[in-house]
Amino acid sequence: MDEILTNSKARRDYHILETFEAGLVLKGTEVKALRAGKGQISDAFARIEDDQAWLYNAHIDEYAFGNLQNHQPKAPRKLLLHKSEIRKLFGLASVKGNAIFPLSFYWKNRKVKVLIGVGKGKVQFDKREDIKKRDTEREMKRATMHRFKGK
Q1: Is the pLDDT score of 119 beyond 70?
Q2: How many CB atoms lie within 10 A of CB 18?
Q3: Which residues pair with 127 in a beta bridge?
Q4: Taking the CB of residue 134, how many other CB atoms lie within 10 A of it?
Q5: Contact between 116 and 89 (Cβ < 8 Å)
Q6: Which residues contact 66 (CB under 8 A, 6 or more apart)?
C-alpha cells in the first residue's frame, strides 16, 4: 500500500468515527498526475447523491503531457462503494455535525483507492488536549531512550 496523498487537516480537525475503503473513477491523465504526486485533498469532502457517493473539491493537477482530453482539476469524482456501504455512510452523515472526507489516496493492486472517513468536528479544547497528549507521549519516549542509552 503506497500512499499518494494524505489529508493531515482531517485527523487534526475531526474525531474519526469510521473509515471506508473506496475505489475512484478516474481518467488516464488523472492517474498519471497522481503517479507524479500532483494533487491535494485537504479541502475535499464527499457527499451522497441519488444513491451514489461523490468526491468534491479534490484537486488533481492537470497532466503536463496531456492533450485536449486532459481532465478538469477540481471535477467531482465518483466513489465506488457497495450499496450497503453507501447506505451506512448516508446514515452516519445525516447526523448533525458529521462530515464525510477523504483521509488518503493510495495504490492497491495497481489501482487508486481512497480511505474515506466519517467524523465529527473537534472544538478548540479537543485540539489542545490532543496536542498535550502527543507532547507527553513524546517526552516519555525520550526519557526511555535516554535510559537505554545510558546502560
Answers
A1: yes
A2: 13
A3: none
A4: 10
A5: yes
A6: 29, 32
Residue 143 phi, psi (nearest 5): -65, -40
Ordered DSSP codes for 20-86: EEEEE---HHHHHHHHTT-EE-TT-EEEEETTEEEEES-EEPPPTT--TTPPPTT--EEEE--HHHH
Q: Grid coordinates standing for 29?
A: 491523465
Among 25-29, 36-40, 70-74, 99-103, where is mean pLDDT lowest?
70-74
- Helix (H/G/I), strand (E/B), else coil: 149: helix
- pLDDT tens, residue by residue, 35-76: 888 889 988 999 999 999 999 999 888 887 777 778 888 889
Main-chain phi, psi angles of 92, to 5 degrees: -70, -40
Is pTM, for the whole model, over 0.90?
Answer: no
Please report where in the chains the cell 466513489 appears, as a residue. Answer: 79
